[in-house]
């Protein structure tokens, strides 16, 4: 496996395009939402890598090694020696079609030799939970599914997804990796603290929350946000929601707000909010966020990676807003846990896709999620 990275920033590419084009080459591209209006840049990559498989998405910040960039494109080119690569795409017009889009991707990738699927989706008007359900319902249990939802800074406006040089706002794309030579491991950790009373979800439909303990969800949320309420939905990134199925359940999932409806007093989240579940607000603990990123790096070392190694780091935009100038500490922490010489790229997202430990994939919010790839000698 051969690997190279490059970046487009301030009007120029940082170097020549490496000569790695092949039918077994993966090209990952993460960039600012404004680059959705720059099709010529993606055309350059597609022309340089005509036989390769290109996928990418917009971001809330681009990760390149231990640096975070804005208004750039960050690119990784991976030429596998023994691993077969396949690309898939599904149309996703609105959140109602999320399950079907996930199923369509799974059907296109499915094979007895499939070992891992890396998925990128539009970041708004999507139900990430249903997207994942569609994927795992039609893929073998042993297939590792990871990825993320595209971003648009803290604006929650228009996101884009790219496949083989073509950019659009209504799709899901994925790469399948096939054969016994590929090594893919993962890690996903948070680091947030819960506070306030735990409340019951008394009214919700899909990823729209209407009421907690019988009270309008948005009004209740605004009470906790105080003066920050005027900055909704962006300010809600600082106060995600922890959900668990019962009061005895030791595992919780975290959900981030994507939008609010003042007329309905409802809130739309990146994933499902099941009625009857228990919800509690969360807030940041700076040191625990950094330690969470470090723990994600440790978890991602579950497989033995040797030789060229790529780490795709996907962290939630809410973490970046909270950490501010300390944001680069979390991507330094992940890289410190990985093999020396590992190349790390990635982006800040509206949602992260990763298994729970060794279980099936799920949608996460407010986590640092890593996908680490290498190939057996």
Q: What report would you give on this structure?
A:
The protein folds into 2 domains: about 1-190 and about 285-375, no CATH class; about 190-285, no CATH class. Helix 2 (about 100-110) runs parallel beside helix 3 (about 130-135) and helix 5 (about 285-300) runs parallel beside helix 7 (about 325-335). The chain has helices at about 40-50, 100-110, 130-135, 215-225, 285-300, 315-325, 325-335, and strands at about 1-10, 10-15, 25-30, 55-60, 60-65, 65-70, 70-80, 85-90, 115-120, 145-150, 160-165, 165-170, 170-180, 180-190, 190-205, 210, 215, 240-245, 255, 255-260, 265-270, 280-285, 310-315, 345-350, 350-355, 360-365, 370-375. The protein is globular. The strands form 4 sheets. Strands 15, 16, 17, 18, 19, 20, 21 and 22 form an 8-stranded antiparallel beta sheet that branches. The chain has a 7-stranded mixed beta sheet with strand order 2-1-7-3-4-11-12, covered by helices on one side. A hairpin with a 2-residue loop joins strand 5 and strand 6 (about 65-70). The relative contact order is 0.18. The protein has about 375 residues and is α+β, with helices and mostly antiparallel strands.
